[in-house]
Specification:
Blueprint lengths: L1 E5 L2 E5 L8 E6 L4 E6 L4 E2 L7 H12 L4
Antiparallel strand pairs: 1-2, 2-3, 3-4, 4-5
Length: 66
């Protein structure tokens, strides 16, 4: 499991979790906002992330964390 706080979000991922590869996104207070599919670059369950969150996720990928 990995967990990071960035830009007012808590982003969590689980090693070996079910397909598709995704992260869970929560508010800084711990309320679930949604899940983000790392392959399609889209929110899951009709949720769409804002540009700020997309940049944070891209940064985590560049760092090799995701």
């Amino acid at each position: 499991m990995g967990r990071v706080r960035r830009g007012g979000y808590i982003i969590t991922w689980f090693i070996g979790d079910h397909e598709p590869p995704h992260v869970h996104v929560e508010t800084a207070g711990g309320k679930l906002i949604g899940r983000f599919d790392l392959r399609t670059r889209q929110g899951m369950e009709s949720w769409q992330p804002d540009k700020k969150l997309l940049k944070i996720i891209e940064g985590l990928e560049r760092e090799g964390r995701l």
